[in-house]
Design a protein that fits this description.
By secondary structure, the protein is of the alpha/beta class. The protein folds into two domains: 155 residues, Spore Coat Polysaccharide Biosynthesis Protein SpsA, Chain A, CATH 3.90.550.10; 56 residues, no CATH class. The protein contains eight helices and six strands, in the order E-H-H-E-H-E-H-E-E-H-H-E-H-H. The protein has a six-stranded mixed sheet with strand order 2-1-3-5-4-6, sandwiched between helices. The radius of gyration is 20 Å and the shape is globular. The two termini are 38 Å apart.
Length: 229
Amino acid sequence: MNSKTAILVFANSPEVDAQRKGIQHGEKLFEQLNQNLIQKVKRSRLPYFITTEKTQKGKNFGERFYNAISDVFESGYQQVITIGNDTPQLLTQHILKAHQALNQNNTILGPSVDGGFYILGIHKNTFDDLDFKNLAWQTSKLFNQIKSALIGLQNNVLCLETFNDIDNIESLKHIQNFIHKISAQIQHLISILIKRFEFIFFNLQFSTLGVNTQIPFNKGSPRLVSITR
């Protein structure tokens, strides 16, 4: 084994992600997010593992996440960098910065706007000491809670910049503010989904008022834009 650090990509299949996040017709977006993330991971030249809902073990998110990281450590690695597929602003340079910080005996966290985190770089001995499964997973308290717990274990915690992640259709609008940092394919798919959502919302609002909205075909109604697989 040439590296003591491995990357863990903890994500779901595009179909499951689109369903759980309530983004209708979002499968193509998550497929592209997965592909782009793997390209970024490969450019780091670090060994990596991928786990989806098909391979994850546990009754809840915390258990599944804990077990996935444990499996990587049991493979012989001493440091793990965990990332998901829902933060398109994440770049290879952030993964490499986390790797360098781990080698300097730091623990790494990348905070998300919603109070979670998009990247965690952790050593095996710290992971073993942390009450990992009982953290406030999938809540706005998670980042502050895990940071405090790590500091309580005498860890030097390095925090990267704060990013938006994709939790629902509304979060796509926030990510559009940073569109210059996202690939053109993902920009295009996000734009289509937002237009589709706004078109549906527009029609629902007017239908509640009894207004019949007929948008001509040559106006390019988002309803008529299909996302092909």
